[in-house]
Amino acid sequence: MTKERYQNLLEKVNQYNSGEIGITRIAFSNEEQACTHGFIRMCKDQHLEVRLDASGNLIARRPGKNPSLPPVVMGSHLDTVYQGGKYDGAVGVTAALEVITRLNEKRIETDHPIEIISFACEESSRFGVSTIGSKAMAGLIEKDKIRHLKDRNGTSIDKAFSDCALDFESIDQANRTKERFKVFLELHIEQGPVLENKNKKIGIVTGIAAPIRLLVTINGKASHSGTTPMHMRKDALLAASELALETEASAKMEQKEGTVATVGDLIVHPGAMNVVPGKVEMKIDIRGIDVKSRDRVLKRIEEKISGIKKKRDLNVESKIISRERPVMLSTDILNELKAECEAKRLSYELLQSGAGHDAMHMTKLGSVGLIFIPSKDGVSHHPDEYTALDDILAGIDVLEAAVLKQAIVHKEGKSVNEPV
């Protein structure tokens, strides 16, 4: 029954999809908003109190016996990358609702309120900046740095908010730093091969890497490809190619520290076969746990930009659109998750996350635990992304146990976890 119920829940969420290949549910799109409102109905079916905050985060609350106590919070995100998979983010949100459903079935009351949060715009695919909703909630949003951003269709972030009946100028109102969470717990697919390769059921995350993201604009001169001599060209794409290769080389120099760098988005103007490219916009992602290593990669890229300007006589503008700090997660919650795995005889591995998650910003609001479950072949952000149902359910079992431990089960006027 639990298997079928959860499978149906995940399928309901993934019916909201704008593409034919994989899952495309981009932040603040019609599909993402429809999915969010569909999930609201699912939460209301479990008698949760639901609201949307100023950044578009969905917050569903199960009252506790003592409403003055800080909430125990679970969450993740419902938006996807372009042509992504069925599990990234969606598993964490649906797993949280499954935990609530189990508590309701068992008629378990808790002293602490319990919340589910589906964070807005976790993925950077649309605007080049990730975890916008959780940043806003943690008081980390910098409106002036992101208000100029546009998606691939030229839609500004301000317009995307407006299309969803949100006001970008009011995003600061999502800030919850004046209140505290008792704990934030996120269940997520690993998005890497470690758990599968080591045949472990659960990953307990010790720290989360964070990105520096650059928007680089290279302005050359568009000209006829047949009549412009090679030595007279100002080809913006060739300059971008040099910079992309330097990005790769710089990251390879930091392999021991685990730092990586990617050019994942490149737009060529005017984009015609018979025109020398006059302008290129590219986005560069540098990430790692070691801040000094990450900064060394950034420095080499910036030096390369200076060299390209002189060598090719081009105008190159570089702007840092996001610079986040890696975080280490709560030792007390880590030890608790280890104990839950051991009690359930589930094999586990302590590991770091190379991908960013909303959980990293929730460290501003309370203790944080991040639980990983295996990804087949380590594949993610791809239609082939897959996590077995039994692995998801094992993760939900650990999540449920941790929530009950933290929320404190109430029974006959006394909390079960309280000392006699």
Task: Describe the 3D structure.
It is a single chain. Strands 1, 2, 3, 5, 6, 7, 14, 15 and 16 form a 9-stranded mixed β-sheet that branches. This protein has about 425 residues and is of the alpha+beta class. A hairpin with a 2-residue loop joins strand 17 and strand 18. The C terminus is likely disordered. Helix 3 packs across helix 12, helix 8 packs antiparallel against helix 9 and helix 10 packs across helix 12. It is built from 12 helices and 18 strands. The protein folds into 2 domains: about 300 residues, Aminopeptidase (3-Layer(aba) Sandwich); about 110 residues, Alpha-Beta Plaits (2-Layer Sandwich), CATH 3.30.70.
CATH top level class name of the largest domain: Alpha Beta
Number of strands: 18
What series of H and E elements makes up the topology? Answer: HHEEEHEEHHHEHEEEHEEEHEEHEHEHEE
Number of helices: 12
Query: Quick check: average pLDDT?
Result: 95
Helix/strand class: alpha+beta
Largest β-sheet summary: 9 strands, mixed
First and last CA, distance:
36 Å
Cα-atom Rg, whole angstroms?
Answer: 23 Å
